[in-house]
Protein backbone atom coordinates (compact mmCIF):
# COMPACT_ATOMS: atom_id res chain seq x y z
CA UNK A 1 0.00 0.00 0.00
CA UNK A 2 1.19 3.53 -0.76
CA UNK A 3 2.43 5.30 2.36
CA UNK A 4 1.10 8.79 1.69
CA UNK A 5 0.33 11.58 4.15
CA UNK A 6 -1.18 14.80 2.87
CA UNK A 7 -1.84 16.73 6.08
CA UNK A 8 0.63 17.74 8.79
CA UNK A 9 2.01 20.80 10.60
CA UNK A 10 5.44 22.23 11.35
CA UNK A 11 6.72 25.03 13.60
CA UNK A 12 5.67 27.43 10.82
CA UNK A 13 2.17 27.08 12.25
CA UNK A 14 1.26 24.99 15.31
CA UNK A 15 3.41 21.87 14.92
CA UNK A 16 6.38 21.16 17.17
CA UNK A 17 8.88 19.91 14.56
CA UNK A 18 10.62 22.12 12.01
CA UNK A 19 9.84 21.35 8.36
CA UNK A 20 13.15 19.46 8.00
CA UNK A 21 12.57 17.47 11.22
CA UNK A 22 9.08 16.60 10.03
CA UNK A 23 10.43 15.25 6.74
CA UNK A 24 13.08 13.28 8.64
CA UNK A 25 10.39 11.66 10.77
CA UNK A 26 8.22 10.95 7.73
CA UNK A 27 11.21 9.27 6.08
CA UNK A 28 11.84 7.09 9.14
CA UNK A 29 8.21 6.04 9.04
CA UNK A 30 8.39 5.05 5.37
CA UNK A 31 6.32 7.90 3.90
CA UNK A 32 6.74 8.07 0.09
CA UNK A 33 4.53 11.09 -0.62
CA UNK A 34 4.21 13.95 1.86
CA UNK A 35 2.38 17.27 1.86
CA UNK A 36 3.18 19.90 4.47
CA UNK A 37 -0.04 21.79 5.20
CA UNK A 38 0.65 24.47 7.78
CA UNK A 39 -2.24 26.68 8.84
CA UNK A 40 -2.49 29.80 6.68
CA UNK A 41 1.19 29.85 5.70
CA UNK A 42 3.41 28.44 2.96
CA UNK A 43 6.71 29.53 4.52
CA UNK A 44 7.83 25.98 5.41
CA UNK A 45 7.46 24.51 1.95
CA UNK A 46 10.90 25.34 0.60
CA UNK A 47 12.77 23.82 3.54
CA UNK A 48 10.54 20.73 3.54
CA UNK A 49 10.86 20.30 -0.19
CA UNK A 50 14.69 20.33 -0.05
CA UNK A 51 14.72 17.88 2.85
CA UNK A 52 12.29 15.60 1.01
CA UNK A 53 14.40 15.60 -2.16
CA UNK A 54 17.36 14.30 -0.15
CA UNK A 55 15.24 11.47 1.21
CA UNK A 56 13.61 10.57 -2.10
CA UNK A 57 10.19 11.54 -0.80
CA UNK A 58 7.76 13.04 -3.31
CA UNK A 59 6.88 16.38 -1.77
CA UNK A 60 3.58 18.20 -2.33
CA UNK A 61 3.21 21.90 -1.63
CA UNK A 62 0.27 22.25 0.71
CA UNK A 63 -1.53 24.63 3.05
CA UNK A 64 -4.54 24.41 5.42
CA UNK A 65 -6.61 27.56 5.16
CA UNK A 66 -9.02 28.85 7.81
CA UNK A 67 -12.45 29.69 6.40
CA UNK A 68 -15.64 31.07 7.88
CA UNK A 69 -18.68 29.47 6.29
CA UNK A 70 -22.15 30.32 7.65
CA UNK A 71 -20.58 31.54 10.87
CA UNK A 72 -18.56 28.37 11.45
CA UNK A 73 -14.88 27.72 11.05
CA UNK A 74 -13.94 25.11 8.50
CA UNK A 75 -10.53 24.17 7.15
CA UNK A 76 -9.73 23.86 3.46
CA UNK A 77 -6.56 22.12 2.35
CA UNK A 78 -4.81 23.34 -0.77
CA UNK A 79 -2.72 20.57 -2.35
CA UNK A 80 -0.17 21.19 -5.09
CA UNK A 81 -0.52 24.93 -4.72
CA UNK A 82 1.96 27.43 -6.14
CA UNK A 83 3.16 29.21 -2.98
CA UNK A 84 4.17 32.27 -4.99
CA UNK A 85 0.77 32.83 -6.57
CA UNK A 86 -0.03 36.39 -5.48
CA UNK A 87 -3.70 36.10 -4.55
CA UNK A 88 -2.88 33.07 -2.38
CA UNK A 89 0.21 34.65 -0.89
CA UNK A 90 -1.55 37.92 -0.07
CA UNK A 91 -4.70 36.21 1.14
CA UNK A 92 -2.71 34.11 3.61
CA UNK A 93 -0.92 37.20 4.89
CA UNK A 94 -4.27 38.83 5.64
CA UNK A 95 -5.44 35.74 7.53
CA UNK A 96 -2.25 35.72 9.61
CA UNK A 97 -2.76 39.38 10.51
CA UNK A 98 -6.23 38.44 11.73
CA UNK A 99 -4.73 35.66 13.87
CA UNK A 100 -2.63 38.17 15.82
CA UNK A 101 -5.70 40.34 16.51
CA UNK A 102 -7.71 37.31 17.58
CA UNK A 103 -4.90 36.24 19.94
CA UNK A 104 -5.14 39.59 21.75
CA UNK A 105 -8.89 39.03 22.14
CA UNK A 106 -8.33 35.51 23.47
CA UNK A 107 -5.80 36.88 25.96
CA UNK A 108 -8.29 39.56 27.07
CA UNK A 109 -10.95 36.89 27.59
CA UNK A 110 -8.57 34.75 29.65
CA UNK A 111 -7.58 37.81 31.66
CA UNK A 112 -11.25 38.15 32.71
CA UNK A 113 -11.03 34.81 34.50
CA UNK A 114 -7.73 35.71 36.11
CA UNK A 115 -5.30 34.11 33.67
CA UNK A 116 -2.76 36.86 33.09
CA UNK A 117 -0.19 37.48 30.37
CA UNK A 118 -1.40 34.64 28.21
CA UNK A 119 -0.54 36.46 24.97
CA UNK A 120 3.12 36.54 25.97
CA UNK A 121 2.86 33.02 27.39
CA UNK A 122 1.37 31.64 24.20
CA UNK A 123 3.79 33.63 22.08
CA UNK A 124 6.71 31.90 23.77
CA UNK A 125 5.52 28.73 21.98
CA UNK A 126 5.21 30.41 18.59
CA UNK A 127 7.74 29.74 15.83
CA UNK A 128 9.88 32.16 13.84
CA UNK A 129 7.01 33.15 11.59
CA UNK A 130 5.05 34.60 14.48
CA UNK A 131 1.88 32.73 13.51
CA UNK A 132 -0.22 32.34 16.64
CA UNK A 133 -3.17 30.02 17.19
CA UNK A 134 -5.18 28.33 19.87
CA UNK A 135 -2.67 25.48 20.08
CA UNK A 136 -0.07 27.93 21.39
CA UNK A 137 -2.50 29.11 24.06
CA UNK A 138 -3.20 25.46 24.85
CA UNK A 139 0.50 24.73 25.39
CA UNK A 140 0.82 27.76 27.66
CA UNK A 141 -2.24 26.76 29.72
CA UNK A 142 -0.97 23.18 30.12
CA UNK A 143 2.47 24.44 31.12
CA UNK A 144 0.84 26.60 33.81
CA UNK A 145 -1.16 23.64 35.11
CA UNK A 146 -4.63 24.82 34.03
CA UNK A 147 -5.25 21.49 32.26
CA UNK A 148 -3.48 18.19 31.92
CA UNK A 149 -3.48 17.70 28.15
CA UNK A 150 -4.51 19.14 24.78
CA UNK A 151 -7.91 17.54 24.71
CA UNK A 152 -8.84 18.84 28.16
CA UNK A 153 -7.50 22.34 27.67
CA UNK A 154 -9.51 22.86 24.48
CA UNK A 155 -12.67 21.52 26.07
CA UNK A 156 -12.27 23.69 29.17
CA UNK A 157 -11.01 26.96 27.72
CA UNK A 158 -10.68 27.31 23.98
CA UNK A 159 -13.88 26.24 22.26
CA UNK A 160 -17.15 28.10 21.71
CA UNK A 161 -18.92 28.84 24.97
CA UNK A 162 -15.73 28.60 27.04
CA UNK A 163 -13.88 31.54 28.66
CA UNK A 164 -10.92 31.75 26.28
CA UNK A 165 -12.89 31.55 23.06
CA UNK A 166 -13.02 34.43 20.60
CA UNK A 167 -15.22 34.42 17.52
CA UNK A 168 -13.23 35.24 14.43
CA UNK A 169 -14.06 35.89 10.79
CA UNK A 170 -11.61 34.00 8.60
CA UNK A 171 -11.54 34.06 4.80
CA UNK A 172 -14.55 33.22 2.64
CA UNK A 173 -14.96 29.81 1.09
CA UNK A 174 -15.26 31.16 -2.46
CA UNK A 175 -12.07 33.23 -2.31
CA UNK A 176 -10.08 30.43 -0.71
CA UNK A 177 -11.09 27.95 -3.40
CA UNK A 178 -10.16 30.57 -6.01
CA UNK A 179 -6.71 31.14 -4.47
CA UNK A 180 -6.03 27.41 -4.43
CA UNK A 181 -7.35 26.50 -7.87
CA UNK A 182 -5.97 29.70 -9.42
CA UNK A 183 -2.53 28.65 -8.25
CA UNK A 184 -2.91 25.25 -9.92
CA UNK A 185 -3.85 23.32 -6.76
CA UNK A 186 -6.76 21.25 -5.59
CA UNK A 187 -9.08 22.39 -2.79
CA UNK A 188 -9.97 19.65 -0.30
CA UNK A 189 -12.28 19.91 2.74
CA UNK A 190 -10.14 18.94 5.76
CA UNK A 191 -11.51 16.48 8.38
CA UNK A 192 -15.20 17.09 7.46
CA UNK A 193 -16.54 15.11 10.43
CA UNK A 194 -14.96 17.58 12.87
CA UNK A 195 -17.50 20.30 12.17
CA UNK A 196 -20.57 18.42 13.46
CA UNK A 197 -22.64 19.98 10.71
CA UNK A 198 -25.71 17.79 10.71
CA UNK A 199 -26.94 16.13 7.56
CA UNK A 200 -28.64 19.03 5.76
CA UNK A 201 -25.98 21.62 6.49
CA UNK A 202 -23.31 19.15 5.38
CA UNK A 203 -25.15 18.59 2.10
CA UNK A 204 -25.36 22.37 1.62
CA UNK A 205 -21.62 22.68 2.22
CA UNK A 206 -20.84 19.92 -0.26
CA UNK A 207 -23.16 21.47 -2.87
CA UNK A 208 -21.59 24.89 -2.47
CA UNK A 209 -18.06 23.50 -2.38
CA UNK A 210 -18.61 21.59 -5.64
CA UNK A 211 -20.23 24.57 -7.34
CA UNK A 212 -17.32 26.80 -6.36
CA UNK A 213 -14.78 24.39 -7.86
CA UNK A 214 -13.75 22.37 -4.80
CA UNK A 215 -12.05 19.13 -5.77
CA UNK A 216 -12.09 16.73 -2.87
CA UNK A 217 -12.64 15.74 0.73
CA UNK A 218 -10.27 14.33 3.30
CA UNK A 219 -11.81 10.97 4.06
CA UNK A 220 -9.06 9.32 6.09
CA UNK A 221 -8.06 11.57 8.99
CA UNK A 222 -7.05 11.17 12.61
CA UNK A 223 -10.27 13.04 13.42
CA UNK A 224 -12.45 10.35 11.84
CA UNK A 225 -13.80 7.07 13.14
CA UNK A 226 -14.06 4.18 10.68
CA UNK A 227 -17.78 4.85 10.46
CA UNK A 228 -17.11 8.47 9.50
CA UNK A 229 -14.53 7.35 6.94
CA UNK A 230 -17.24 5.23 5.30
CA UNK A 231 -19.83 8.02 5.43
CA UNK A 232 -17.53 10.53 3.75
CA UNK A 233 -16.36 7.99 1.20
CA UNK A 234 -20.02 7.62 0.22
CA UNK A 235 -20.40 11.38 -0.15
CA UNK A 236 -17.27 11.46 -2.30
CA UNK A 237 -18.45 8.63 -4.56
CA UNK A 238 -21.88 10.21 -4.96
CA UNK A 239 -20.39 13.48 -6.22
CA UNK A 240 -17.26 12.17 -7.91
CA UNK A 241 -15.20 14.17 -5.45
CA UNK A 242 -11.57 13.14 -5.03
CA UNK A 243 -10.55 11.69 -1.68
CA UNK A 244 -7.52 12.46 0.44
CA UNK A 245 -5.81 11.10 3.55
CA UNK A 246 -3.74 12.78 6.19
CA UNK A 247 -2.57 12.31 9.77
CA UNK A 248 -2.95 15.98 10.81
CA UNK A 249 0.24 15.31 12.78
CA UNK A 250 1.31 18.20 15.05
CA UNK A 251 4.00 16.55 17.16
CA UNK A 252 5.02 13.43 19.04
CA UNK A 253 2.58 12.80 21.87
CA UNK A 254 0.14 15.47 20.68
CA UNK A 255 -1.45 13.71 17.76
CA UNK A 256 -3.69 10.70 17.48
CA UNK A 257 -1.94 9.47 14.32
CA UNK A 258 1.76 9.69 13.70
CA UNK A 259 2.99 10.56 10.21
CA UNK A 260 2.09 8.08 7.46
CA UNK A 261 0.95 4.49 7.83
CA UNK A 262 -2.68 5.58 7.73
CA UNK A 263 -5.66 3.27 7.22
CA UNK A 264 -6.45 2.39 3.58
CA UNK A 265 -8.81 4.53 1.56
CA UNK A 266 -12.16 2.83 1.06
CA UNK A 267 -12.59 1.14 -2.33
CA UNK A 268 -14.23 2.77 -5.32
CA UNK A 269 -12.96 6.28 -4.52
CA UNK A 270 -10.69 8.38 -6.72
CA UNK A 271 -7.58 9.41 -4.75
CA UNK A 272 -6.60 13.06 -5.02
CA UNK A 273 -3.20 11.85 -6.28
CA UNK A 274 -4.67 9.80 -9.16
CA UNK A 275 -3.17 12.08 -11.82
CA UNK A 276 0.01 13.16 -10.00
CA UNK A 277 3.29 12.25 -11.64
CA UNK A 278 5.07 10.12 -9.05
CA UNK A 279 8.57 8.77 -9.61
CA UNK A 280 7.48 5.25 -8.68
CA UNK A 281 4.52 3.10 -9.74
CA UNK A 282 1.36 3.27 -7.64
P1 LIG B 1 -6.82 27.85 15.43
O1 LIG B 1 -6.67 27.67 13.94
O2 LIG B 1 -5.79 28.78 15.98
O3 LIG B 1 -8.21 28.18 15.84
O4 LIG B 1 -6.46 26.47 16.09
C1 LIG B 1 -6.98 25.28 15.56
C2 LIG B 1 -6.02 24.17 15.96
O5 LIG B 1 -6.21 23.85 17.31
C3 LIG B 1 -6.27 22.87 15.21
O6 LIG B 1 -5.57 22.86 14.00
C4 LIG B 1 -5.68 21.87 16.16
O7 LIG B 1 -4.28 21.85 16.03
C5 LIG B 1 -6.01 22.46 17.50
N1 LIG B 1 -7.26 21.93 18.07
C6 LIG B 1 -8.50 22.35 17.84
N2 LIG B 1 -9.40 21.67 18.59
C7 LIG B 1 -8.67 20.80 19.30
C8 LIG B 1 -8.99 19.81 20.28
N3 LIG B 1 -10.25 19.59 20.65
N4 LIG B 1 -7.98 19.08 20.79
C9 LIG B 1 -6.71 19.32 20.42
N5 LIG B 1 -6.34 20.24 19.51
C10 LIG B 1 -7.32 20.96 18.97
MN1 LIG C 1 -3.41 22.79 14.17
MN1 LIG D 1 -7.71 21.49 10.74
MN1 LIG E 1 -4.44 20.39 10.39
Q: What descriptive keywords fit this protein?
A:
TIM Barrel, binds adenosine monophosphate, DNA polymerase, domain 1, about 280 residues, 9 helices
Ordered list of secondary-structure elements with their pairings:
Elements: E1 4-5, H1 19-28, E2 33-36, H2 45-54, E3 58-69, E4 72-79, H3 86-112, H4 118-123, H5 134-143, H6 150-158, E5 171-172, H7 173-182, E6 186-189, H8 199-211, E7 216-221, H9 226-239, E8 242-246, E9 270-271
Parallel strand pairs: 1-2, 2-3, 3-5, 6-7, 7-8, 8-9
Antiparallel strand pairs: 3-4, 4-6
Helix pairs in contact: 1-2, 5-6
Bound molecules: adenosine monophosphate and manganese (II) ion (3 copies).
Structural class: alpha/beta
Unreliable residue stretches: none
Distance between the amino and carboxyl termini = 8 Å
Apparent shape? globular
Task: Please indicate the percent range of residues in DSSP E strands (runs of 2 or more).
Answer: 15-25%
Say which molecules are bound, naming each kind only once.
Answer: adenosine monophosphate, manganese (II) ion
- What is the number of independent domains? 2
| Biggest sheet features | 9 strands, mixed
Amino acid sequence: MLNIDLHCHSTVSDGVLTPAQLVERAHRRGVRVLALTDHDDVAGLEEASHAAAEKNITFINGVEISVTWRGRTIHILGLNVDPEYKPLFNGLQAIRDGRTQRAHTIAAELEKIGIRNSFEGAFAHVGERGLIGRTHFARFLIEKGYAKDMKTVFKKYLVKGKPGYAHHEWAQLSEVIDWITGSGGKAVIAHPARYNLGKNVLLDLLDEFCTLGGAGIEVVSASHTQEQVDIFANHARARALLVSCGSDFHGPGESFYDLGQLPDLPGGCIPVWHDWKLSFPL
